[in-house]
Amino acid sequence: MIYLVPIAFILAGCSHKPYGRSCPGEVSTLSGQVTGHSQAWVFDEIQRFTVTDEGTTVHSGYLHSANRALYVPSATTSEGFLAQRLSTDRFRLIDASQDTMVTWTCPVSVAGP
Q1: Terminal CA-to-CA distance of the chain, rounded, Å?
Q2: Element (H, E) at 56
């Protein structure tokens, strides 16, 4: 019985790792004019996400929304970007000072057997 407790903690810790997906992205101005494309790994943790692109990693931080039905869950990253979770498969980073945003649309997740 004593050995089951540590094993349960280890298994619980392993089951909460973020699920990473390779996602295509669209780079655009804040007004929506497309200026390029991106490919990045997005690790979704529901309340936050991480984007890794060409060796650079950005953590969204904890996403907040006063009312998720009306407002997009958002956070300001330590780099000063606005991070948004648009849906279960769409993520955005905005750099207002550079008039740039990148929106990644990930392939739909498929539940395992």
Answers
A1: 30
A2: strand 56-59
SS3 label, residue 96: helix
Render pLDDT for 19-77 as a digit per residue (tens, 0 to 9): 789 999 999 999 999 999 999 999 999 899 999 988 899 999 999 998 878 889 999 99
Q: What SS3 class is residue 14?
A: helix
CB 3 within 8 A of CB 11: no
Whole-angstrom distance, CA of residue 106 vs CA of residue 24: 7
Six token digits for residue 84: 């948004």
Which residue's structure tokens are 């619980």? 12
Q: What is the pLDDT of residue 55?
A: 87
Q: Considering only CA atoms, which of 54, 60, 102 is closest in space to residue 77?
A: 60
Residue 102 pLDDT exceeds 80: yes
| Residue 50 and residue 43 in contact, taking contact as beta carbons nearer than 8 Å | yes
The answer to whether 89 and 106 are in contact (CB under 8 A) is yes
